[in-house]
Each structure stands twice: as C-alpha cells, then as structure tokens.
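Escalated from tier 1: zinc ion holo job.
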Amino acid sequence: MYFEKRDVVLIAGIILVMIGLIPFMAPVYAVTIGLLLYFGIKVYVGRKRSMIEKEVGEGVCMECGFTIVDKKCPNCDAEK
Ligand SMILES: [Zn+2]
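Tier 2 regenerated the structure:
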C-alpha cells in the first residue's frame, strides 16, 4: 500500500463525506466510517491492480512486444 496523487482526491472526498455525516452522528463514528471507506477503496483498487498485473504477466518481449511466458518470448524464442 503506497501513497499516490489520486489518494489526495480520495482523502478529500472522504473528508467531505465525514463532514456531511457529523451532524447526524458522533464525529468518532463519522471518522470510523471515513477510515473504513478509505481502506475499502484502497483494497479494492489494489486487487484490481494486481488482477491487471496478472493479466499482463511477466512483461513483454523487448523485440516484438509479445507477452513473456515462463521467461521466454513464445514468438522469438520458438524460432531459435
Ligand atoms: Zn519476442
């Protein structure tokens, strides 16, 4: 879990939600909900990213751009 520029927008939004909740409940509950929201979104975004990384795999071949499988390019290494 690392800090990103996008997190600033996320935190700003959550602070607004917390401020909106404070008139209806104790500030401590509003902060708790805000924190839950923050970590919920972080976990969701992290899972989505790792799914994308899995799909991308081990990278792409520097020569042809094919997806690397088992540290080999199925396109170039097959020809050798
Ligand atoms: Zn290749």
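The two ends are 41 Å apart (CA to CA).
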